[in-house]
Amino acid sequence: MGRRRTPGEIAYALVIGGLAALALVILVGPILVVLATSFTDSRSIRFPPTGFSLRWY
Fold first, then answer.
1. What is the per-residue pLDDT across 34-47, written as a single tens digit (0 to 9) for each?
2. Does Thylakoid show up as a keyword for this record (predicted)?
């Protein structure tokens, strides 16, 4: 068994985990938005999408 972690170590791990999750959302979020909007049938970005198309692929 490993040693018990101190409250400071637990807090540090939570902060690092939260920052990693935030970085993931910031980096991957825009890619997911562009991917989702690329399937619309219009030439410009509209939300909500008016239709579905594979035109750009």
1. 888 888 888 887 77
2. no
